[in-house]
Q: What sequence folds into this?
């Protein structure tokens, strides 16, 4: 049940962040993320390095989305702080995503050789959806170039986050197997 709560709560963070940005409510994503993070502070939730992953994801997200804005590949709605710095609403998505990696998205960290290439497709797709359906992101450069750069950034970010989640998530009773890809 906690896995589903984690998954659904992150989806709510996504909708609050993207929908809020689309309507100029820059603080909706960060507020939803803070509620999500508060849920993770409950005593019955095993943290397994969640907050270490969160800080790492924030650094990767800041680098990715600042690069995108500074290179003129994308522009973000409700950009607080101002461009070319990654806006707070999108950083709340990166931080929220990190809080799923040892919970509802644990399967991602258990199969990095499978998931890392998939992230190079799914990550940019979420930006495309945020751009086309919500107007929270504007892709300025040719779509192929912007999505290609995002794909490369997500490939690297997911590789780093998968390996970090395996490292931070290890404990005496929940260590993960050492091979990068488990047998089915």
A:
């Amino acid at each position: 049940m906690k896995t589903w709560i984690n998954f659904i709560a992150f989806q709510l963070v996504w909708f609050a962040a993207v929908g809020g940005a689309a309507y100029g409510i820059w603080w909706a994503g960060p507020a939803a993320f803070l509620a999500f993070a508060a849920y993770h502070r409950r005593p019955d939730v095993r943290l397994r390095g969640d907050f270490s992953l969160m800080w790492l994801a924030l650094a990767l997200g800041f680098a990715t989305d600042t690069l995108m804005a500074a290179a003129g590949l994308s522009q973000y709605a409700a950009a607080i702080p101002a461009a070319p710095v990654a806006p707070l609403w999108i950083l709340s998505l990166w931080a929220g995503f990190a809080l799923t990696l040892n919970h509802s998205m644990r399967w991602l960290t258990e199969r990095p050789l499978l998931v890392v290439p998939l992230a190079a497709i799914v990550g940019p797709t979420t930006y495309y959806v945020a751009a086309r359906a919500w107007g929270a992101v504007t892709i300025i450069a040719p779509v192929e170039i912007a999505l290609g750069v995002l794909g490369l950034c997500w490939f690297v970010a997911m590789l780093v986050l998968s390996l970090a989640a395996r490292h931070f998530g290890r404990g005496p009773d929940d260590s993960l197997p050492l091979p990068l890809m488990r047998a089915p």
